[in-house]
Design a protein that fits this description.
This protein is mostly helical. 56% of the residues lie in helices and 0% in strands.
């Protein structure tokens, strides 16, 4: 396959087929170099045409807790008191900059995910 820019879905499909064919090629070989270039082209095309929105900050916190096998109690001291944890997780109280820093440092949640505005609960005034 001739490597060229991916401009439309047909080019994207052809690049994915070629990636499948080249998968496992050794780094530093002609096939390995072709694979790296195709992966970069596909990544750029997909980033532009199929963007993935970052998760809601509260969903990210819940996911990280589940991933680590922790429950809400693990957030006491990171977010604040037990009451404050429940207020934040319910969406009644926004994350503060200090909370975001501690969540990032202690749980490894990317700060840019936590800074996004939290969606209001349905039926509540903004």
């Amino acid at each position: 396959m001739e490597i060229k820019p991916i401009r439309e879905e047909r080019d994207h499909d052809a690049a994915l087929r070629e990636i499948d064919r080249l998968w496992g090629a050794k780094t530093g070989t002609a096939k390995g170099d072709s694979l790296e270039v195709l992966l970069a082209l596909v990544e750029g095309y997909e980033r532009d045409h199929y963007p993935i929105d970052p998760p809601d900050p509260i969903d990210a916190i819940r996911f990280r807790l589940e991933q680590a096998g922790l429950d809400r109690r693990a957030l006491t001291g990171v977010i604040g008191s037990r009451t404050r944890v429940y207020e934040v997780l319910r969406g009644d109280r926004p994350l503060t900059l200090a909370m975001i820093r501690r969540l990032h440092e202690r749980l490894g949640i990317p700060a840019e995910v936590l800074i996004r505005p939290v969606a209001k609960k349905r039926g509540r005034a903004a």
